[in-house]
Every structure is written in C-alpha cells, then in structure tokens.
Amino acid sequence: ASEHYQHSLLLNKGLVPWKQLLDQSRKNTQLAEVHHRHSLLRKCLCSWLQTAGESLAAKEALAAELHRRILLRRSLHSWLKCKDYIAVLEERAQRFYRARLLRRTLLALLDLCTQERLAQWDRERLAQQHSHRM
Q: How does pLDDT run across 37-77, given as a tens digit for each residue?
C-alpha cells in the first residue's frame, strides 16, 4: 500500500502536474513567439505605411508643382499671343486710319481744286464778257 501510495503520489502530485506545467509553458512560449512576430510585423507595416504615405505626398506635391508650372507657361504663352495679335490689330487700325485720312484729305483737296477751277472759269468768262463789251 505504501508503494501504491508513493506511486499515486508521484503520478498525481509530481509527474502529471509537471508535464502539464511543461505543456503550458510550451504553449505560452509559442503564443509569445506568435505575438512577438505579429507585433514586429505590425511595426514594420506601420513604418512602411508611413514611408509610403510620405513618398506619395512628396510625389503629389511634385505633380502639383509641375501642373502649376505648365499652367503658368501656357498662360504666359497665351498672353504673348494675345499681345502680338493686339499689336497686329493696332497696326492694321493705324494703316486704315492713315488711308482714310489721306482719302479724306485728297477728296477735300479735289473739292477745293474743283471749286477753284470753277471759280477760275467763272472769272475767265466774266473777263471775256467784259473784254467783249469793250
């Protein structure tokens, strides 16, 4: 009986709890390793996400700056074309004005010459009439 008691005592109080403790310890170690891997992976992914976000923000800033420069170049080119077009229109208007002024001046001069010629003819006619009377 004493041997049986020692054997059951060793089995119930010594070996089985010790095996259970070792098994629980193994499970805890595996759980700790899994937790450590997951936290390490989370840290890596978080830093990668932050780096990727910063990189994307920098690329978007560069794209916005490039777009702004392209728009600025286009608007400047459009203003230059508009300035050239206005210069051409002003030159055409100046030529038109000069031509119209010259035409009006020449027509006025023609009217004056015609009136003077008519007046001269009238004076000559009067002079001939006067000379024929005498």
A: 999 999 999 999 999 999 999 999 999 999 999 999 999 99
Give Cα 29 distance to the centre of its chain.
57
How many residues are given for the chain?
Answer: 134
CA 100 → CA 86, 109, 114, distances in Å?
Answer: 21, 14, 21
- Give the side-chain half-sphere CA count within 13 A for 69: 6
Retrieve residue 53's tokens: 């976000």
Q: Is the pTM of this model over 0.85?
A: no
Tokens 């005592």 found at:
9
Round to whole Å and give the CA distance between 6 and 13: 10
Question: What are 20's two structure tokens?
Answer: 């259970």
48, amino acid identity: W
What is the DSSP secondary structure assignment for residue 13, as one 8-state letter? Answer: I
**CA separation for the pair 127, 134 (Å, rounded):** 11
pLDDT of residue 117 exceeding 70, the answer is yes
